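Lecture 7, part 2: worked example. A protein chain together with dihydroflavine-adenine dinucleotide.
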Amino acid sequence: MSLTFDAIILGAGAAGLFCAAQAGQRGLKVLLIDHAERVGEKIRISGGGRCNFTNRDLDVRAPHKHFVGQNPQFCRSALSRYTPQDFIALLQKHGIPFHEKHKGQLFCDRSAEDIIQMLLAECAAGQVQRWQPCKVQKIGFVATESGGSYQLDTSQGVVQAPSLVVATGGLSIPKIGATDLGYRLAQQFNIPLVERHPGLVPLTFDGTDWAPYAQLSGLALPVSISTGSKKNLMAFDEDLLFTHRGLSGPAVLQISSYWQQGTPLSLNLAPTVDLPTALAQAKLRSRKLIANELATLVPSRLADAWASQEADWQRPIAEASDKALARLAERLSRWQLTPTGTEGYKKAEVTLGGIDTKALSQQTMEAKAQPGLYFVGEVVDITGWLGGYNFQWAWASAFACAQGL
Ligand code: FDA
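Predicted complex, written out as structure tokens:
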């Protein structure tokens, strides 16, 4: 005997919970299935435990500014129908306190758990049934004259529904439940995929090349970082963090979503200082070592590490040649380096690529060639910048889908 629902939603993360709540509140009989013990694990660990749930600076008329994918314009329809202000209003309705941190980023005052409890309360208001932990063993589709029906064999029994929403997220952080089920389902139903890569991820370097910089592990500083050709340059002004194996921090996480394997990054490690002028002036008035003068312009650990790179830079600044100082300024303000790779899905916040947006309706997120099959959230080839954009995409795509079910 199989149970019948109006819609089955796979994945009780940000997009799945929100879609289930919205569809349930529209009067649909909804079943939400997740294989994990707890719902919303990524919400729980997001934003350092405080969940950066949206971003006030989102410009819905220009999604390419904050979203990556083969066609960032695809998300415009959903983002304009469910905006950051709509989600803020929902938090206010639930009395959840929040604050703005940096560049429009909104965080919970207390904890990410507030968002999870809010989403569960919204699901309860829509009488959403939840099966969890529940393993999905097989998914089939039977076409009928009126459309068709999806049948799922699960560890809790057989269920069917005319609509199946795939909200199984990306591949990052497998230890808390990420799987490739969404991509496998796409393949099963001949829906095209864009190649997947870790995004918002620390970058790594060859061990030998990185050895001189490993001593800087833990150092954080504001930088300008860029990648790409002149015509296609992507640049961020954010904080950089040196690690034992490479570079991290918001600057690198952001640029990682644009970086192509084998290409260099360019970093200005002193973006607010006119280094050539500052060093030339110091030469005229100081007898200190170059490293000590440099330490008045950039963090002293960085000054020491850079000055130790050339014999010409290990002397009193008054004795340095103009050429040597110009070279030092250049090396700090146009540091070129080519990562060998990334820290991978273990450390990535998101997955780039996924369900090809060409195959989906931007109004409802339904697969154009497979009636009743929907994809929402991170499983789709839409990836946001760091700063709450990924959750806003999860809420907005889930909302668009729930209206179309
Ligand atoms: P999500 O990953 O949330 O949910 C997918 C669900 O599907 C999970 O519950 C999973 O268990 C379930 N599932 C997977 N495979 C399954 C299977 N085979 N069977 C059944 N269920 C299955 N974004 C942001 O905007 N602000 C932030 O502060 C952060 N911070 C952050 C920190 C860290 C450490 C990470 C890893 C990520 C972030 N993000 C973020 C990104 C954000 O968490 C992410 O984009 C959204 O959670 C995506 O929502 P989804 O619902 O699409 O997937």
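The CA atoms of residues 4 and 83 lie 33 Å apart. Residues 10-16, 33-36, 41-42, 45-47, 51-52, 136, 167-169, 172-173, 177-179, 181, 349-350, 377-379, 388-391, 394 surround dihydroflavine-adenine dinucleotide (CB under 6 Å). Keep this in mind for problem set question 3.
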